[in-house]
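Practice problem 4.
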């Protein structure tokens, strides 16, 4: 009997810690009606976008999924307004876990956190925002407790988890924000944020499966006379890499070499030559596959000084003392004969070739090697650019502005500030206050001009909910008006700076090719204005204060030109969004033009 009692005691002792450690709480499927009624089975529920649409009565912004502002008041306020008047502090220990999925080109993230013990008895749920830094991707999930719950302080040690966020591109940076509900009326830290990177292709799939992460490892350098031969290992044929390149730097001069191995030979190694390197100079070189954002492998090249007239050092030997005078005499005779020959026939030779001196000078200048200015993509203090625009021209125009901001931030070494990327900060400070602070703190301000800048939208009346302005107000809210006011403030700043004789380089105006110069307000015509994407190089020159051309040098930034920007994924997205906005603007203008015809 006592043996049986001892065994049962040991089993309970083992099972007790296992139950205590089972504190991870995952969301469950339950309806919004169950949450409102306070059912005991609805402990921690995911709320779908269909539930939000049914409860609110209109379509929320598609980018925010199942989340809505002030969800506690909207979902519970009509039944019991006191449920949402208490302060709850933001959660603690926000972490992100990357889980495996079958897609080799993307990652799946699961967010977890612990609720704060401050106000936990009044906690009603959480909202989880996920946003791509430098992009426009926004996802949101809403989780609620049933209305009768009152969590004790001991539940602050429990770990709550979100649903998976699938389809996150590899090698991308994201910001995740977990907000506790209800949201306080004023101030307070009611949310916690953290940034994370998705895994690289090499981390998830292995180095041999990723073009961008593969790089030549075995590099050998040999010098033969004045030529440098470099041998490196080629990528596996399965990766489909057809071209490579190398770049060498020394004394502010860049030597770029395109490498195209012969694919028919299918060799594992390839050799190429570095020509026109200066003797006695040490070069820092990089080699990589000719792919976007490919990893570069660095190696050093030391160009030895080649001795003229032979490899043996000069020594004071009797044989050399006898040969040296004879050699000098032969050289002197050769110089005299060459001078006499050139003096005798200078004119006929020039007449025979019939080359004008100015053409010779132009040819010599054209062969002068240009200095390529290479700017680092990772500057310690990149310029800060605020982009302002009018949202009244529709979502296609707004999408073009966002894609432009993403392209500038990713490939033009600039920190971009855009209100649609910082929705939480705009909500916390207020749209007008946020714009005023950004105008004050930014190094540059770029106003994207369009027809919408001349329109002043007003909040729609309840009786006109189906109109175009009502749709604009639901889509963009008060930001529509505050952005236009911010543009007016910028115009006033420009006018005051011009009157005082101050520098106007901080302010810029730009239009897309589907807009006209007449769309630029009169006060902004005092500053530099550009047409995008034709003037991307000029915009880059303005932001970084560098000249595009100079004596013996020229500025070359990869994929910034009008012809080459679309080769990048961000550039292709920008080109596509501009095309969609052009189509939308054309269709929008047709009714107004048709109204002027004969009836």
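Answer key:
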């Amino acid at each position: 009997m006592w043996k049986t009692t001892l065994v049962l005691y040991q089993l309970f002792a083992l099972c007790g810690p296992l139950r205590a450690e089972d504190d991870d709480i995952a969301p469950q499927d339950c309806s919004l009606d169950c949450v409102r009624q306070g059912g005991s089975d609805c402990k921690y529920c995911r709320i779908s976008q269909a539930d939000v649409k049914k409860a609110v009565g209109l379509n929320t912004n598609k980018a925010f999924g199942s989340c809505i502002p002030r969800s506690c008041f909207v979902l519970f306020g009509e039944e019991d307004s006191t449920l949402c008047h208490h302060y709850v502090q933001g959660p603690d220990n926000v972490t992100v876990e990357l889980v495996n999925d079958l897609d080799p080109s993307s990652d799946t993230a699961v967010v977890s956190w612990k609720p704060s013990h401050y106000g936990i008895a009044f906690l009603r749920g959480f909202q989880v925002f996920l946003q791509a830094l430098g992009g426009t991707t926004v996802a949101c999930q809403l989780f609620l407790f049933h209305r009768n719950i009152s969590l004790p302080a001991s539940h602050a040690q429990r770990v709550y988890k979100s649903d998976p966020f699938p389809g996150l591109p590899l090698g991308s940076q994201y910001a995740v924000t977990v907000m506790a509900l209800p949201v306080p009326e004023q101030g307070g830290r009611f949310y916690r944020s953290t940034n994370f990177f998705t895994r690289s292709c090499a981390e998830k799939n292995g180095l041999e499966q990723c073009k961008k992460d593969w790089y030549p490892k075995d590099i050998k350098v040999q010098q033969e006379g004045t030529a440098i031969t470099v041998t490196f290992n080629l990528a596996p044929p399965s990766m489909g890499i057809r071209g490579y390149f190398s770049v060498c730097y020394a004394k502010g001069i860049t030597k770029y070499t395109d490498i195209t191995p012969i694919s028919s030979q299918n060799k594992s190694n390839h050799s190429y030559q570095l020509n026109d390197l200066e003797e006695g100079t040490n070069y820092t070189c990089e080699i990589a596959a000719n792919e976007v954002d490919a990893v570069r492998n660095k190696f050093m090249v030391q160009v030895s000084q080649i001795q003229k007239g032979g490899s043996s050092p000069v020594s004071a030997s009797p044989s050399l003392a006898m040969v040296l005078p004879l050699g000098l005499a032969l050289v002197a005779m050769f110089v005299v004969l060459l001078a006499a020959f050139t003096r005798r026939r200078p004119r006929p030779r020039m007449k025979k070739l019939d080359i004008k001196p100015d053409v010779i000078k132009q040819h010599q200048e054209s062969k002068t090697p240009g200095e390529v200015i290479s700017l680092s993509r990772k500057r310690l203090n990149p310029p800060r650019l605020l982009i302002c625009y009018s949202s009244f021209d529709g979502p296609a125009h707004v999408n073009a502005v966002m894609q432009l901001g993403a392209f500038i931030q990713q490939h033009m070494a600039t920190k971009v500030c855009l209100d649609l990327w910082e929705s939480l900060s705009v909500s916390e400070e207020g749209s007008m206050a946020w714009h005023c602070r950004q105008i004050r703190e930014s190094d540059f301000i770029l106003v994207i001009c369009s027809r919408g800048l001349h329109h002043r939208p007003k909040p729609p009346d309840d009786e006109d909910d189906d109109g175009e302005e009502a749709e604009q107000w639901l889509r963009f809210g008060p930001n529509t008006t505050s952005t236009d006011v911010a543009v007016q403030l910028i115009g006033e700043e420009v006018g005051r700076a011009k009157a005082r004789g101050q520098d106007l380089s901080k302010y810029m105006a730009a239009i897309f090719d589907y807009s006209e110069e007449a769309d630029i307000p009169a006060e902004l015509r005092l500053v530099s204005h550009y047409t995008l994407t034709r003037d991307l190089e000029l915009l880059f020159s303005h932001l970084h204060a560098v000249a595009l051309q100079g004596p013996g040098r020229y500025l070359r930034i990869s994929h910034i030109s009008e012809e080459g920007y679309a080769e990048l994924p961000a550039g292709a997205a920008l080109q596509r969004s501009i095309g969609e906005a052009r189509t939308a603007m054309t269709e929008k203008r047709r009714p107004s033009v048709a109204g002027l015809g004969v009836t």
